[in-house]
Amino acid sequence: MLLGYARAGTGAHTLESQIDALTDAGVVPARIYSDAFAAITRMPLRPGFTALLDYARPGDITVVVGIDRLGRTAPEVMATARDLADRQIGLRSLREGLDTDDPAGAMIVGVLASLAELDEELGPARRVTDASRRTRAASVGRPRALGDEQIAIAERMRADGEPVPAIAAALGVSRATLYRALAERRSVT
């Protein structure tokens, strides 16, 4: 038996448009379960999906307009897909053309579920890594040849009338490096 599930969202994901698509796909309107969320909560209550699970029997197929209608996050979508598979309830997504009755579709859902599990396991470690990557992002590339103190010295020497080649030689850098450092300093201030 085909069972439909619609979850309200924004834009094109209105309940009405999803219900129309599900009935066009052959789901009997009386067997379409839906959830509408008035506000975003940490743990969404899904009475419509719970009712679908209560009614469904092994061998039934849950039809959704898009795989994203199974949840708001990738782990939530994959947990829902895993729950359906554990109950031997098929899954068909109209937009993606996924069908767990098809071996390729079942494999894709299995791979996505595995990736979601991996994402859950690596989540805390990945957040720490991403944070350290962002702090290093400010200093990407080769270290600067001149520090802020050396650039300040070069600016004072230039203000005193020293020629750029003499300043560069005194600081141990090329003229091009000195010109670039002075130009960067002027563009920042």
Q: What's this entry about, in short?
A:
The protein has helices at residues 15-24, 47-55, 74-86, 103-137, 148-159, 164-171, 175-188; strands at 2-7, 32-35, 61-64, 90-93, 98-99. It is an alpha/beta fold. The longest helix has 35 residues, at 103-137.
Description:
- By secondary structure, the chain is of the alpha/beta class.
- The protein has two domains: 119 residues, Rossmann fold (3-Layer(aba) Sandwich), CATH 3.40.50.1390; 41 residues.
- Helix 3 runs antiparallel to helix 4, helix 5 runs antiparallel to helix 6 and helix 6 crosses helix 7.
- The chain starts with a strand and ends with a helix.
CATH architecture of the largest domain: 3-Layer(aba) Sandwich
How is the main sheet built?
Answer: 5 strands, mixed
Q: Which stretches are low in confidence, meaning pLDDT under 50 for 5 or more residues running?
A: none
At CATH level 3, the topology of the largest domain is Rossmann fold
Keywords: DNA integration, DNA recombination, DNA-binding
GO molecular function, one term: DNA binding
Organism: Gordonia mangrovi
Domain Resolvase/invertase-type recombinase catalytic: 1-139
